[in-house]
Amino acid sequence: MAIQWFPGHMNKARKAIAERAKSVDMVIEMLDARMPASSENPLLAQLSKGKPKLKF
């Protein structure tokens, strides 16, 4: 039995974010204060390319 590391609900969320990213002016990303660099989502950065970002 193969274990899929990117399950269907994650793909559904990625598609929804990609669709909504077209109509937003700015992206706000909430990061974990203990380890902000490792809590960033590279997929979100790719989907929001060219948009202003506020990370906190």
TrEMBL record:
InterPro entries: P-loop_NTPase. GO terms for molecular function: GTP binding; GTPase activity. It comes from the Bacteria. Keywords: GTP-binding, Nucleotide-binding. GO terms for biological process: translation. This is Ribosomal biogenesis GTPase. The gene is rbgA_2.
